[in-house]
Amino acid sequence: MTDAVTETDLHPTERHPAELHPWGEPFAKFAAWLAEAEKAEPNDPNGMALATVSPDGMPSVRMVLLKDFDERGFVFYTNFESKKGTQILGSMKAAIVLHWKSLRRQIRVEGEVEVVTDKEADDYYHSRPRSSQLGAWASIQSRPMENRFDLEKRVALFTAKHPIGTIPRPPHWSGFRIKPTYIEFWEDRPFRLHDRLVYTPAPGVAMGESWVTEKLYP
Asked: Most CB contacts within 10 A, which of 27, 30, 183, 195?
């Protein structure tokens, strides 16, 4: 006589078929929350804390700006020779948090990282103000600087080098896309009984087909 199959014996996609969601669903929810934040937050609603880790395991975090997102992931741009750039290139993993105090919400994302295409990087780079394009050449990001005048001299140098016309994108400046393996939507609730909804890629199916959700204790 065989034992009865219990709910815990089933594969997650069999156990909770109602919790399978289209791949775009968390991104639609993200877009809706970001749109509300753009109305409520006075400064940088797309600001996010970016966490990376060094080869010896030391974590590092800083604020950056989200510049694009779709079902492929979340994109930001940086100097690849900076601290965050070298740490990401070393692990090709990262995590971000967007927190909107006025809405009492936050979104956490963890995932693998890929470099955006040259076209994506070129298009974004050339959409920036000319002074910002020159700054990407002038700043030796994350390196020691003796005084502010050193930076100003480098800005003047590259301004003279590119007085008119198109400024080429520096080879060390591009974008990263975080391809999420974990997305958490957090909302404040009374008495610190907050709401936490997590999306993870559905097991047993190809990546990019569907998500499963679960609620977490606050």
From this structure: 183
Alpha-helical regions (H) of 70-117: 83-91
What is the per-residue pLDDT for 32? 98
Q: Is 192 an active-site residue? A: yes
User: What is the radius of gyration, based on Cα positions, of the chain?
Assistant: 21
**Distance from C-alpha of 85 to C-alpha of 89, rounded to nearest angstrom:** 6
Q: What is the pairing mode between strands 59-65 and 173-187?
A: unpaired
Give the separation between CA 215 and CA 82, rounded to whole angstroms.
Answer: 37
Distance from CA of residue 147 to its chain's centroid? Answer: 32
Measured at the CA of 165, the angle between CA 162 and CA 170, to 5 degrees, comes to: 55
Is 0.90 topped by the overall pTM? no
How much of the chain is helix, strand and coil, in % rounded to 5? 35, 35, 35
- Report residue 159 as tokens: 């301004």
Q: What tens digit of pLDDT does each residue of 32-41 get?
A: 999 999 999 9
Return the number of other C-beta atoms located less than 10 Å from residue 106's C-beta.
20
Return d(Cα 32, Cα 105) in angstroms, integer: 12
Tokens 């016309």 sit on residue = 165
The rounded Cα 97 to chain-centroid distance in angstroms is 8
